[in-house]
């Protein structure tokens, strides 16, 4: 009996389980333009309301992986590790974490996409470094990884084409926020590239996709289950995105902060996150038998300068100008740098990360659409974080921009976003918990 798209939509509309064959039929047909948008949108809406079980979600992920090419990393020596963040504000983790892990002798190989939203993605940030080449042939990618244990490049165009097409449709049909659809979208891209172990940084809070802890835990569990179901070592950490990570938001500014961190002078929260993610990666890669020892290894490569040297190597091997790392004052600079001063005293109660992200977007640090040009010099550098004491006249943040009107507009916005008052009774958490194949553990 032949499969019909009408029957698949009806079945899911009625809350029934789809077979692997039906899911494959839909993904292949939609990717190859045999199924029209209106039918695909109907099925996505039915999935949105009636959900998918774990088996359906794994089959959807596999179908999306099989819609394009996969990258076999077996030519790269050692146990290869990768990290994925669900996205946040000021999230420059890969740029510091990658060199730290690689300096410990573990291959950190990553293919990234571009950023869409308040700031650029890892690739956009790296392009703040003059001549840095993110487009690499597979051969170069393998060779660089084997030579220096790290390579960061753009995904080939034909990885998970089904995901690109489906995401565009979900975006305009209000079907983005479904755990199965989010998890399969993220994991299909990760699993198409054959790393041996993956750590997921699942953000929760005002600046994250998942606003509350319960939904972040559900997403983390779903993604870990998909990774394990695909035969990959997978762990997730659930981390705080109620305020930006570190102080810098914006492409060139974040590169500068990552460099400072590798020199041992970075923000406490950002360095701590790199140590937490990195220690788990070293254990997954069998470089260390426990996280305490792994953490000490990471601290040592920062303190001895070998993690910083690894970043220099990465930039050099990918044709970038290392002077931009040696002297971060060479990175793209904005014409206007404006101080935002406090007219109150007390403690920073909150600073909504999403709203700060929107400010960075107004300044040009991110993309409104895929076609938008990014201003690599624009962004915001915070001077205070949540729970810190503030006096009248203290600088709360610096705004970097090239459009005077927009800089002034953001200055007024930040005054409202950064809330000052009495000290918070509960101290903030950086990491809420972890999800492994065995259990979910909240800290």
Automatic annotation (TrEMBL):
Organism the protein comes from: Anaerosalibacter bizertensis
Subunit structure: Homodimer.
GO BP field: pyrimidine nucleobase metabolic process; pyrimidine nucleoside metabolic process
Keywords: Glycosyltransferase, Metal-binding, Transferase
Annotated Gene Ontology cellular component terms: cytosol
Domain (Pyrimidine nucleoside phosphorylase C-terminal): residue spans on this chain: 347-421
GO molecular function, one term: metal ion binding
Primary enzyme class: transferase
Entry similarity comment: Belongs to the thymidine/pyrimidine-nucleoside phosphorylase family.
Record keyword Cytoplasm present: no
Summary of the function given for this chain in its UniProt record: Catalyzes phosphorolysis of the pyrimidine nucleosides uridine, thymidine and 2'-deoxyuridine with the formation of the corresponding pyrimidine base and ribose-1-phosphate.
Entry's EC annotation: 2.4.2.2
Catalytic activity of the protein: uridine + phosphate = alpha-D-ribose 1-phosphate + uracil; 2'-deoxyuridine + phosphate = 2-deoxy-alpha-D-ribose 1-phosphate + uracil; thymidine + phosphate = 2-deoxy-alpha-D-ribose 1-phosphate + thymine
Protein name: Pyrimidine-nucleoside phosphorylase
């Amino acid at each position: 009996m032949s499969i019909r798209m009408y029957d698949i939509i009806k079945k899911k509309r009625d809350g029934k389980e789809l077979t692997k064959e039906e899911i494959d039929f839909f993904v292949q047909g939609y990717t190859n333009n045999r199924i029209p948008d209106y039918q695909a949108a109907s099925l996505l809406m039915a999935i949105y309301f009636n959900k998918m079980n774990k088996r359906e979600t794994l089959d959807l992920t596999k179908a999306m992986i099989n819609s394009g090419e996969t990258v076999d990393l077996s030519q790269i020596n050692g146990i290869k590790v990768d990290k994925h963040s669900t996205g946040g504000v000021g999230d420059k983790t890969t740029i510091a974490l990658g060199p730290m892990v690689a300096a410990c002798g573990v291959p950190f190989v990553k293919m990234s996409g571009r950023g869409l939203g308040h700031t650029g993605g890892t690739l956009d940030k790296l392009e703040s470094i003059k001549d840095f080449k993110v487009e690499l042939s597979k051969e170069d990618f393998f060779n660089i990884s084997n030579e220096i244990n790290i390579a960061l490049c753009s995904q080939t165009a034909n990885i998970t084409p089904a995901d690109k097409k489906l995401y565009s449709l979900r975006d305009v049909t209000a079907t983005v926020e479904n755990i199965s659809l989010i998890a399969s979208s993220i994991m299909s891209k990760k699993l198409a590239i054959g790393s041996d172990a993956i750590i997921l940084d699942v953000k929760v809070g005002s600046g994250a996709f998942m606003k509350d802890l319960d939904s972040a835990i559900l997403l983390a569990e779903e993604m870990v289950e998909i990774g394990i179901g695909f035969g990959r070592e997978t762990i997730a950490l659930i981390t705080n995105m109620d305020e930006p990570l570190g102080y810098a938001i914006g492409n060139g500014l974040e590169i500068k902060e990552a460099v400072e961190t590798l020199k041992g002078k970075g923000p406490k929260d950002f360095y701590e996150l790199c140590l937490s993610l990195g220690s788990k990666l070293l254990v997954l890669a069998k470089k260390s038998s426990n996280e305490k020892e792994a953490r000490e290894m990471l601290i040592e490569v920062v303190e001895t300068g070998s993690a910083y040297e690894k970043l220099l190597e990465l930039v050099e091997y990918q044709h970038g100008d290392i002077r931009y790392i040696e002297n971060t004052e060479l990175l793209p600079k904005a014409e206007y740098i404006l101080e935002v001063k406090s007219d109150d005293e007390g403690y920073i109660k909150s600073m909504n990360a999403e709203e700060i992200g929107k400010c960075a977007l107004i300044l040009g640090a991110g993309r409104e659409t895929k076609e938008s040009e990014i201003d690599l010099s624009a962004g915001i550098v915070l001077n205070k974080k949540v729970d810190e004491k503030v006096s009248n006249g203290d600088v709360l943040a610096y705004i970097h921009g090239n459009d005077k009107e927009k800089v002034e507009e953001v200055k007024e916005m930040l005054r409202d976003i950064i809330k000052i008052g009495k000290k918070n009774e509960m101290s903030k958490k950086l990491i809420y918990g972890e999800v492994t194949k065995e259990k979910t553990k909240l800290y």
